[in-house]
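Suppose a classmate hands you a notebook page containing two proteins, each written out with its sequence and a corresponding row of structure tokens. How would you begin to make sense of it? This section walks through that situation. The first entry is reproduced here exactly as it would appear on such a page.
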Amino acid sequence: MQNTIAPTTVAVARFFTDRLRRAAGLKNGFGDGSACGRTPNLFSFAAGAGKTFRLFFIKMISPTALKKLAAQHGTPLFVVDHAELRATYATFKKYLPRVQAYYAVKANSDPAIVRTLYKAGASFDVASMPEFQTVYENIKHLPAKERQDWIWDKIIYANPIKPVETLRELNQYKPLVTFDNFEEIRKIKKFAPQAGLVLRLKVPNTGAMVELSSKFGASPGEAVDMILEADKLGLTVEGISFHVGSQTTNFENYVQAIALASNIFKEAKDRGYTKMNLLDIGGGFPAPYDASVKPFRELAKVINGELDRLFPKSSGVQILAEPGRFLCATAATAVSKIVGKAVRDGKLCYYINDGVYHTFSGVIFDHCHYHLKSFKKGATQICSIFGPTCDALDVVSMAENLPELELDDLLYSEQIGAYSHASSTYFNGFPPAAVVQVNQ
């Protein structure tokens, strides 16, 4: 279901020095309204519909800070920490230094997130024209040639299947686009002949939380035939892409996929095609949802080893990737309120004002399990958590360890930045959670 009204977004400023925070009277990295009054030009701004919100710096999104945000802005609340976005991007670049990171905008297309990653130097993987335009807003002021160079170097339209209307609109931007079938080649030739092409290869998705290979990817046996067909039509295939499946904890998927891509490069060269200079290793980089997820540096070591072996620097092949979840999952926290409480079949059940049609949509669409935490301490028991809608599908969790809580008590869920608020709806009349941006 498509949203018809944009969710409320509360912008929050970032302040850079402890001296400024002390001068403003902030405590524990959080400023309240009274402190904000000391420097009004820095601490307040108009935020639509005549509302004015206070700006503050949060050094870390602690439970105390979350409670204060909820008291100020109400619930349900979706808190995005831009310091964490910058940190995850830096981590990706640190451990995969050869890889140009194209943020997969679909993971969370909030323009503020895109803006922060743009300023950090990220490139972008878009899969629709609205996503393209969200990125384009950051570069539309550039001179025409510089803007075009940026699009070519920093955006890939990574949806292998594109409507004719999209291709027509894309053609003016001369972008990189993916494809995985013969019909798409003919569409691109007719409606976006100025685009550069990247062939998406079908690779193993074993053990991925979200399997993608059944919907996308050319079979290795047909790959070079497609490359040569595109070349015959006057199009240029710049390289190969693949995706090992979202939230992949099976590192062998990357090993097999890089080897398959290397074989395609070799076969294409043997058959006379020598124009490819790009390998896009896709997404799937796992977010650290729990202790079962191995550290990113271990996966990076495996990937770096295979790239050095099969695509060494001397090959001249540029390496791209499309991290989405990895960059934004840990950068957001959801805060909700208990609106109902019952005991069913001897089990304590809490009803909250957020659910699977809203921030917890990843439970349904992303096969993700988000844990909820209480701000209160005490002896815990296994509880069920239900969303606010009048639909039995609205089940956030059937097994959470929580203490005895009362109406209006708050819960929070960490690491919920990816594939969550992005797919929120207005189902049953309940709007998406308000968004608060911190540490921008």
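The notebook's second entry, a different protein, reads as follows.
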Amino acid sequence: MWAVCRVRERDSELFLYSPSVEAVRTALTRTCVHGTAHSSILMSEKSTYTRVNARTRDESEGDDGGSAGQRWVRPGEETEQTEQTEETADEELVCPECGGNVVTDDEHGETVCADCGLVITEDSVDRGPEWRAFDSKEKDQKSRVGAPTTNTMHDKGLSTNIDWRDRDAYGNSLSSNQRQKMQRLRKWNERFRTRDSKERNLKQALGEIDRMASALGLPENVRETASVIYRRALDEDLLPGRSIEGVATSCVYAAARMAGVPRSLDEIAEVSRVPKSEVARTYRYIARELSLEVKPADPEQYVPRFASELDLSEEAKLRARQLLQNAKEKGVHSGKSPVGLAAAAVYAAALLTNEKTTQAAVSEVADISEVTIRNRYHELLEAEESIGVA
């Protein structure tokens, strides 16, 4: 009985399993009691060998006395064979003709040399989807995978959602027994999705964030940032003594300013369920405790939104930005509300570009009184004139 070990091939790497010589001798002594001295010597010599699978047919045919596809190698030869395998794998990454770099063309399923253009392999397996889509709607319909994880949901979108409509996959109505079963499943699914008070808190807060962001027309990245800020506040135990709505509103306000699409406190308070004073107080507390890097609101960031709602041209937008830049040079913006300055700049730019608009229209869009617009309007024009004279 010789010590024969099997070899398995995985990812072009050879894994050898060889027992020690002493272990084989002990096993042979116990099992081969009636063996002769010659056979014992032969077995001890054979135990120092390892039978491995031949990688090619030429190697298997060249072996003497071995079975097909196997050969005997000494333990010292295993390291040499492993090194040869690694060298072969490295050689496969270069062109066999010129030794240049090899690139993979996934579109045509070919492996091509980047230097000489030699096609090394072709008809490779396409690991992409087997269907084609020409728009986002068709892609969503044909896709068979779930949505990516998101911080805007308390479970990051990894749970199951059961539709509220009692219909099957073909649009047919369910029977009464099936409707009762689905109702029980929905009830238990909601209970399992929020296992403790922390998850219930997070679920309510993220729902508020999504509602307010939708009402304010904020993009998806702002919702993600607001959700991350709220999660940090919850992890650092900043919520006791404060309402969930107040902290969620302050997170939306901070995220909008950090993303460069700020909203005024008055706009935030209109869609929130808490008063403006509480939003401002909670925002200062959250920004201080979490060390949020929120820059002061720039009046120029409000110009595109105001101009779009007033249907002004690009020339008026550029002129409004120029007025605000001149005001910054003169220090007029210091201590002034950025919303009021932006509204006055939009109104002044509309007049300078001969576009029809009124103070009442700008006041309604910016939620700023007409008196404030007139005062900032005169200050902007004075700064413009002083720069022109200088």
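A careful reader of the second entry would note: The chain is about 55% helix and 5% strand.
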